[in-house]
Write a structure and sequence with these properties.
This protein is of the alpha/beta class and 408 residues long. 37% of the residues lie in helices and 23% in strands. Helix 8 runs parallel beside helix 9 and helix 12 crosses helix 13 (343-349).
Length: 408
Amino acid sequence: MTLEVLCNIGQLATGTASGGPSGITTISGAALVWEADRILWLGPQADLPAEYRVGRQSDAGGGLVIPGLVDCHTHLGFGGWRGDEFAMRLAGRSYQEIAAAGGGILSTMRQTRAAGPETLVDRCLEFLTEMASLGVTTVECKTGSGLQESSELMLLEVYQQVGQRAAQRIVATLLAAHAVPPEYRERREDYLNLIMDRLIPETGRRGLARFCDVFVESGAFTIDEARRIVRAGLAAGLRPKLHADQLSAGGGAELAAEVGAASADHLEHVSDEGIRRMAEAGVVAVSLPLATLYLNQRPLPARRLIEAGVPVAVATDFNPGSAPSFHLPLAMMLGCTLQRMTPAEVLAGATLVAARAIGLEHEVGSLELGKAADFAVIDAPDLNHWMYHFRANACRRTVIAGQTVFSV
C-alpha cells in the first residue's frame, strides 16, 4: 500500500463533529495523509510528521479541500424526462394539476416501466460519473418510479448493480409509497397491502435497501397510511424516511419524530410543533432547494430549524420532474441565498449531516482519523469564496476510498 500525502492545501474543511454549531472546522496551510482507503493524519503542513514526509505527494494548488459531498436524497433511477411539464409549470399549471392530468410521477412511471434494467443501469452510471466530477462521493437512491412490484424490485436490483460498478457509495431506499398507480386507483387498500405484505418483506429479506420512504401529502399517502407502511418497514429492518410537509402542512414532521425516522425531507410547510418534535427526536431535516426553485415555492425554514436544534442536510432531490439537476454545489449555494444558511452550515449539510441522514456518519461526511479517504479539491481559496463565487464547476479532483476518480 502506498502512503499518499496531499500538500499545499489553502484551507482544509475537516467537518468534525466537534467543530461548533456548523460542524465545520477549518485549517489553513494544511496537509492530508491517507493509506489505502483510510485517513491517517491531517493538520497544518508545518506539523507533518517525518514518517509521512516520505509518502507520494500531490499538490492541492493552494485550494480548498472538503469532505466528499453526500447527496442524501435522489431519485436516480428513472426512464425518460419531463421537459414539457417544465414549460407547463412556467405557464401557471401547478404540480397537482399536472399530476391529475396524467403527468408528474405517473409519466415517469410509464417511461420507467418501459425501460429495461440495462438501460437504467447505464443511465445511473452516466449520472454518477458527472456527479463525481462535482465532488459527490456518496449517493442515496430512491425507487418510486416503477410503482409496481416487478418494477420497484427491478430498480432496487439496478441500484445493487450500480453500487458494484460506480465509484460512489450507493445507499438504496424503497419508495414504493410515492404515489398510487392508476391500476390501483379504485383499489387503494390493495396497493397498500402489496407494499406492506410483499414488497417490503422481499426487500428486507434480500437486503436490497436500508430505508423505507413514504410521500406523505394530499394526493399521495395519509398520515395513517404512512404510519402503517413505516411500521411494516421497521419489522423488515428498513429504517423510516418521509417526504413530509412539501406542499402543505400535513403533520409529516410530527410523524417522522413519532416513528424515529432518519430524516424528514422537503418540509417547506413544516409546523412549529413539527420542528419541536423533530428536535426532540433527533430527526434530520433534509432541505431540497433545487425543488423549491423549480416549483417556485417558499424554501424550507432553515434558520428556524437550526435555531431549534434540528440538524439540516442539503441534497438535490434529483428527479425528472421537480428537480431535474444533480448539481449539489448549486443546491448548496441556494441553501445560502434562499435559506440564509452560512457556507459552513451548507457544507456540513452536504457532508456530515447528510451522512447522518443515511446512517453513514461514522464512515463518511467528515475528514477524521480512521474515516474513509473521501474528499474533493476545490479551486477556491476558502469555503466562503467557493459559495460566494459560484461557477459551473470548481472541483478539480475527487477522491473516493483513497482513489482518484476525477481530476483536471
